[in-house]
Amino acid sequence: MKHHHLAHLLDFQPGLLIGTQIERGQLLGRVGKTGTQYAHCHYEGTLIKPKKWTQYVDGISKDEVLKIYFDVRLYIDKENQIPCRYDTYGGYDFLDPIIDKSGKTIGFHPGVDINNGIGDADIGNPVMSPVDGEIAYIGRLEGGWGNHIWIEEKEGHWSDEAMDWALDHKLIESRKNPNQTVSWGEQVVFARRLAQKVKQWSIEP
Question: CA angle, 94 as apex, 166 and 187 as ends, to 5°?
């Protein structure tokens, strides 16, 4: 089950506890700079439950990072400011090399650093959940992560009717196991392909 991680928060929304059910767009807290030098929201996602809630990628290859993490940019909605307001990714982007002071690559960034403005301009901006799910962990002032939160993504399932229609219209490449879950990221890809089809159908004679 995919897990989503947001870090360096200033604080958390009151009432959030491990096991709390949340919805995409629900307020989690505010952008801060706990555990880091400048204010931003670090956002990453793991393909399964992490071995440690404070894990990081020092010393592992890009291929190894891709076995553990997925690209969360599909979940980011700039218009609706999910998970938070931003102008740029501002710091490291997904899979950017992490360089130490000597110029040596020590790892590859597993997520994105979301910024709004220069320096600490985004302190206090709302941070919202990127998915429907359940709070799996809340960490307070834990090392380089500062205040951080993990969310286990709630996933839906394929119905036979939806699968048949999607196959007929070439929106998916192959039949899915009806017990296989479909993540929000897959839904986004599906929606983009459908939008392309609708545009194509609108101009066909």
Answer: 15
Q: Is 55 helix (H, G, I), strand (E, B) or coil?
A: coil
b (16+ CB within 10 A) / e for 65-82 = beebbbbbebbbeeeebb
| Per-residue pLDDT tens over the stretch 85-105 | 988 667 889 999 998 889 999
Asked if 40 and 114 touch (Cβ cutoff 8 Å), the reply is yes
- Cβ neighbours around 96 below 10 Å, total: 16
129 burial via Cβ count (<10 Å: 0-12, 13-18, 19+): buried
Q: Write the pLDDT tens digit of every residue in 104-154.
A: 998 999 999 999 888 899 999 999 999 989 999 999 999 999 999 999 998
In angstroms, the CA 46 to CA 110 distance is 9
| Tokens found for residue 104 | 């040596």
Using DSSP bridges, classify how beta strands 69-70 and 41-46 pair: parallel, antiparallel or unpaired. Answer: antiparallel
Are 25 and 1 within 8 A, CB to CB? no
Q: What is the pTM of this model?
A: 0.79
Tokens of 157: 């399932």
- CA-closest candidate to residue 4, choices 81, 75, 88: 75
